[in-house]
Amino acid sequence: MSLKGKRALITGSTSGIGQGIAEALACDGCDVVLNGFGTASDIETLTLRLAAQYGVSVRHIAADVAKMEDCRSLAARASEELGGIDILVNNAGIQYVASVEQFPAEQWDAILATNLSATFHLTAALLPSMRSGSWGRIINIASVHGLVGSIFKSAYVAAKHGLVGLTKVVALETAGSGVTCNSICPGWVLTPMVERQIEDKMRIESVSREEAERQLLAAKQPSGQFATPAQIGALVIFLCSESAANLTGASLPVDGAWTAQ
Ligand code: NAD
Questions:
Q1: In terms of domains, do 214 and 237 share one?
Q2: Active site residues
């Protein structure tokens, strides 16, 4: 319960990594604002479960972070509902896979808006109150693709490299203020986003699920194991702790040695 009394906004927290982060923060005593798409009943079930299980306030605000106005109103409403936001986790993200020549321009725009620009808008909106409280944590869920490239992921790789760069600038501008800003760079994590890539591989290459998973991991992630949303959540908790007060501007891989190669 080391984060009791802190208030967190986690974008894209109705699924996958974001949900794992919200769970970890709530478990540590944080009040949380969830955001992301999903059915009303699934979102209500998640919201009620987290609140009951951990005894914290949990809200959901249904903003589309690909839109600037939604980001600004999400920041304002989240601050209003919890009385302020101390921890911002920029996690919402989407993927699209195609060669550069075949990449639809609208997918490029959507990925840049969701995976990069949303972080700028939310950070700009929430930083003033973090500065005035002399404490804040901004954690950007980038990717190994913020550090290295892969074929067919031009928009995703460009956005995630941008996120790593933005993280450095925010860390420099906030250094010494009590606010830190870091990126987490996961390799393969088994979530609905990766599930879609496994299913594509099974279909296109006519292989079993086990074989598709094995091939995905073997190609990039030497540990041969998926990371888990709970492991990413645990790193977020550490970054929010006082032990990490001087850890800022970093991009931390959780990638089974993918980027060590
Ligand atoms: P996911 O598809 O399971 O979850 C994505 C979440 O973002 C969902 O809650 C979805 O509703 C939300 N979202 C998408 N577009 C949104 C929008 N416009 N506005 C608001 N919410 C929106 O994906 P995931 O695998 O949990 O990915 C989470 C983050 O982690 C992403 O930024 C992704 O790039 C990053 N990441 C994932 C992996 C992986 O292997 N799964 C690896 C590296 C980085």
A1: no
A2: 156
Strand extents, DSSP E, the chain: 7-10, 31-34, 58-60, 87-90, 136-141, 179-186, 251-254
Assess whether pLDDT exceeds 90 at residue 39: yes
What are the pLDDT digits (tens) for 216-261?
999 999 999 999 999 999 999 999 999 999 999 999 999 999 999 9
* 70 Cα nearest atom in ligand 1: 19
Residues 6+ apart with CB under 8 A from 189: 16, 17, 226, 227, 228, 229, 232
Ligand 1: residues whose CB is within 6 Å? 11-12, 14-18, 35-37, 64-66, 91-94, 114-115, 141, 143, 186, 188-189, 191-194
Whether residue 61 is found in the same domain as residue 181: yes
In the reported structure, the alpha carbon of residue 90 is separated from the centroid of ligand 1 by a whole-number distance in angstroms of: 10
Q: How many domains does the chain have?
A: 2
* Stated pTM of the model: 0.98
Residues 182 and 194 in one domain: no
pLDDT higher than threshold 80 for residue 1: no
Cα of 141 from ligand 1 centre, angstroms: 9
Residues with Cβ within 8 Å of 105's Cβ and at least 6 positions away in sequence, in order, are none
pLDDT digits (tens, 9 = 90+) for 3-30: 999 999 999 999 999 999 999 999 999 9
Is 176 in the same domain as 194? no
